[in-house]
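Work Package 3 (structural annotation) set out to generate three-dimensional models for the target panel prioritized at the project kickoff. During this period the team completed the workflow that converts sequence records into discrete structure tokens, so that structures can be stored uniformly alongside our sequence database. As a representative example, we reproduce one entry of 156 residues exactly as it appears in the project archive.
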Amino acid sequence: MTGPARADTAQLMELLSVSLGVYYGDFTVAAASENLTASQGKALTVLRRGPAAMRALATTLTCDASNMTGIVDRLEKRGLVRREPDPADRRVKTVVLTAEGERVTDAIRAKMHTTQNGLARLDDEERGTLYALLDRVFSTEPERKPEPEPEPQPER
């Protein structure tokens, strides 16, 4: 039995591009089935991980803060999110997913049939490996470098 084929960075980037295209198309159709734009769906997905300040949400979604306000306004009008003052700084508004927002986010994921079917082709071990690799590649935490060992002190 031979090992996996070697892929250079350009090949990996191409495959990631194709994968993200399929995922994004699947996501966009699923979000539309819940009467949401892709941007609104992405905001819900980010908030599924936990509450976020408006500015942080805009940064994560790479959109202008004024555009984020419109997205959150529409989600709030549908009862999918709510704004709360930040306990540390009342000038900052934190966006929180409501129970209905959680339901809609779960419904979007459940309707992503192409993505679900692709992942179902992997066994448990392969899914674990894929998860670990993607986490390692795209983790937002800075890579920790080992502390340098102290230089030996001369004897006195």
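The beta strands are 52-53, 81-85, 93-97.
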